[in-house]
Amino acid sequence: MSEDNWLRTGIGRSTPDSITLRGRDLAGELMGKVSFTELAFLLVADRMPSAGETRLFDASLVALADHGLTPSVLAARLTWTGATESLQGSVAAGLLGAGNVFLGVVEDTARFLAAIIAEAGADVSETAAAERAVAAEIAAGRRIPGLGHPVHKVEDPRTPRLYAIAGEAGIPTPHLRLLRTVAEAHAAATGKTLPINGAGVAGAAFADLGFPPAIIRGFALLARTAGLVGHLAEEMADPIGLRLWLDVEHRATYTAHIGDPGDPDARSS
After folding, report:
1. Among 24, 173, 223, 263, which one has the highest count of C-beta atoms within 10 angstroms of its own C-beta?
2. What's the average model confidence in pLDDT over 80-102?
């Protein structure tokens, strides 16, 4: 491709009388004919999903939409409390907290599973590769991506449902299968049974749908945006942010000693 053609995109374009997404006319071929889930899949994968893929993709997005008053939700609500003119800033504040503890686990799990699959081969079984990977994480003192949950100690209710939907999708699911092997390897190595969490199973499902690990966190952000907008709508109608801040301010213990040079009240005027 010549240097003159460097500025390009295959996602979307508009003219005075049309809008085209992935080669399809928005008004004539997509609006009223495909769901938002199918559109999101199309935009990233550059193909329409099958019915089974659509159902699994949609269920995974639904599974990640909201999980209560999580830190990301509190960040969004408190940002709106201090900046009621900035809905977009409040949503962004919630999304910025999607890291290795919350939501980002979808990507971490996909990467972890992809590395095991890459190692497994003619000389190393998938089970052996999983056991080796789990042992390495344990030795390093790191959590196994996709295992354990602070609330769902025994079973994450999203996990068996997503596995059931995946089983009906009519597609190969090597990552989902491997995630169960990883959980078994961890239990055998530690004597502790941790549940496969919803973010982990969603990450494995996205990987089985053909998406590379690097883009998978984006789907978690897409899903959680809906939850954040819902919480912000509630915050506008029935706010808790101001009371939350005042309660924290009231409960917080001031740890500086009286007379500490760092205490502004201790300085002479």
Report:
1. 223
2. 93
Give per-residue pLDDT as tens, 202-239.
999 999 999 999 999 999 999 999 999 999 999 999 99
DSSP H helices in 5-125: 36-45, 51-63, 71-82, 87-96, 105-119
- Give the E-state strand segments of the chain in sequence order: 12-15, 18-21, 24-25
The total of other beta-carbon atoms located within 10 Å of residue 21's CB is 18
Instruction: Specify which residues 21 forms β-bridges with.
Output: 12, 24
pLDDT digits (tens, 9 = 90+) for 132-174: 999 999 999 999 999 998 888 899 999 999 999 999 999 999 9
Q: Which two tokens stand for residue 146?
A: 């996709």
Q: Are 155 and 162 in contact (CB under 8 A)?
A: no
Distance between start and end Cα atoms, the chain = 70
**What gap in Å lies between CA 115 and CA 98, rounded to an integer?**
22
CATH 1.10.230.10 holds for 105-214: yes
Q: Would you tell me how many other CB atoms lie within 10 Å of the CB of residue 7?
A: 5
Q: Given the DSSP bridges, would you call strands 12-15 and 24-25 parallel, antiparallel or unpaired?
A: unpaired
Closest among 41, 51, 1, 4 to 21, alpha carbons compared: 41
CA-to-CA distance for 132 and 143, rounded, in angstroms? Answer: 14
Among residues 136, 154, 168, 179, the alpha carbon closest in space to that of 58 is found at 168
> What are the angstrom distances between the C-alpha of 61 and each of 6, 74, 129?
34, 21, 29
Question: CA-CA distance, 225 to 83, in Å (whole number)?
Answer: 18
Q: Which residues contact 218 (CB under 8 A, 6 or more apart)?
A: 44
Q: Judge whether residue 111 has pLDDT over 90.
A: yes
CB-CB contact of 97 with 75 (8 Å): yes
